[in-house]
Amino acid sequence: MYCWGDDAFQKGNLPRQYILSYPDRFDIFMRDGKIIELRYYNPGYIVQESLQVGSSLEDVLKVLGPPVETIEGKKNEFKDGILYKDIDGMKGNCYYGRVDKGVRLFIKDNKVVALYVTGSNYQQIVKSATTKPRQHSP
Predict the structure, then answer these.
(1) Would you list the domain boundaries of the chain?
(2) pLDDT digits (tens, 9 = 90+) for 87-98
(3) CA–CA distance from 23 to each of 2, 34, 47 (Å)?
């Protein structure tokens, strides 16, 4: 499936940026014909030698290092290097992105439920996007 936000597209009529969504819970964020981000929702793909879907928040912090700041109980703003804990007051729901390590992690019940592998120019690309890509609910 080709999508962006709530819109779906046909292969021959794709916008500048879109999500290529596969049935086995793997997505690719595309922009201008280039892969921007790989998105994994099942265990098996390992980054930083040991992190994968199912890893604990504790393991994430051991491997990626401590955040520059931790924000608890508030809205997720997807800022790099910041650990968002208990997002919107939902205990155990977290987000931690480290562009320097090429990874963004979505965490539920203190376990990784989505692992996004980013390109080195990810921050620039996201800033220039007109709308946000659909974020799956892992």
Answers:
(1) 2-128
(2) 999 999 999 999
(3) 12, 21, 22
Torsion sign, CA atoms 54, 59, 63, 66: positive
Q: Which structure tokens are listed for 95?
A: 């987000």
Contact 123, 116 (CB under 8 A): no
Structure tokens at 93: 């729901």
- For residues 138 and 37, which has the higher predicted lDDT (pLDDT)? 37
Q: Are strands 69-72 and 82-85 parallel, antiparallel or unpaired?
A: parallel
Give the model's pLDDT for residue 126.
58
Both tokens of residue 109?
């019940």
Phi and psi, residue 39, nearest 5°: -125, 120
CA-based nearest residue to 39, from 30, 100, 76? 30
How far is residue 64's CA from residue 44's CA, in Å, rounded to a whole number? Answer: 18
User: Are residues 86 and 49 in contact, defined by beta-carbon separation less than 8 angstroms?
Assistant: no
Q: SS3 for 40?
A: strand
CA 77 to the chain's CA centroid: 12
pLDDT digits (tens, 9 = 90+) for 45-72: 999 999 999 999 999 999 999 999 999 9
